[in-house]
Amino acid sequence: MTSWFAHSDLDRRSQRQPGAVRPVVAALLALSLFSGAVLAAGPGDRFTIIRAKKAITVSGDEVDNAVVVISNGKIENIGPSLDFPANSRVIDARDRVIMPGLVNAATRFNLPRFSRREVHANWLAKDEFLPHAQDLLPFARAGVTTGAIYPSSGGGGVPGRALIVSPASSKAGEPRILRDKSYLYVTAEKREWREALEKAKKEIEKVDKAKAAFDEQQKKAAPASAPASAPAAPGNASAPAGAPASAPVTQPAASQPAFQPPPIAPELQPLVDLLQKKADFKIVIEVENATEVLGFEQVNEKYELKAAYVARFFVQTDLFQAVKTLGDAKRQIAIPVRLNIMPETENRYSLAAELSKAGAEVSILPVSDDEASFADLWDDLRTQVANGWPKEDALKSVTLNPAKLLGLDEQLGTMQKERAADILFLDADPFAPGARVREVMIGGEMVIPRKRGH
Hints:
This protein is α/β, with parallel strands linked by helices. Helices cover about 25% and strands about 25% of the residues.
């Protein structure tokens, strides 16, 4: 049985010499391959080192015989056969292929659904979240290390802002909240969305009109200008020539009242902030067909809003008719992983592959929002690849692309310096038949550890 934490013979020889490290470490440090955070580590701190058969970084080439250096929950370095300090905690995964953790862009995993309508842009999915760590363990077992939980809406409208969580437990034993206010989720029809934006625009106009009336009132109430010269004060008639004139008596200026804008409807305030460019959170719109995509594109263009999409459909969909529009605009879109069938035909095709080829940024969702579908995600991805979707695009669709959709691509989605050490350990290449996620690391800590004998 392979030990999960193991030092090589060279490590053990180094440990017998106090303070000794592998000879190449000094050269690595001199070349600044390790970050300043590592250099600043105290004598009691240790790096975590992963030694793997192969690392699929998603940010570049695959690395055989990979060594990953981790400090403070982040990747500090990655490369082939790197050397490392002798007192490092070493994870011997030379029988594993490692890759970044999966990112899910839109889920209600294990949370109840509510039927709502109308505009509630100020509501938060955080207020619906039940933070019990065990609820998200299946999430982690499937390899998902980050997920965006959107607010529930069973009847359309604008149900509010999404929540981004990690299944790794915080000190309180609950899932970690990465962002409590993420994208604004929209399930409205085109007409409802346009009306919501028009209402927000009227709120802005209401404030502008009140400010104009206030300014005009202040202008009328301002005192008349003082005369150019004031008469000489009594008793100064005999003042000698050249003597300084008496300073004019000044009256204290009356305090001017401050403008108090009329209140904005709370449910519209986030939309007002978007239209006034005071906020930059993303809009994510749920669609079912090509007509909805084209309609929302028209409305968003009018209000200069850039939106991403979450597509909800069964096997048949006509979204292929919107592929060029989405591709030309470089839109982000999350879709179910299943293969598709042209309406009224038996012709199968990969919408994901067509969107990627056109220039859209595709994120993949499980076919259903349940544990079984999360577990089957890799099998479904392999089917897509077998039907012509390039492996590189398929990998990005579950790592880097959804991280970009969530605005977290500087932290998640790839294995490179300064990214979170959210790492999956697979027993084979992810697209090999039967390959499975065996262990999961989040933030440098093993959330799903290695089992004995595996």
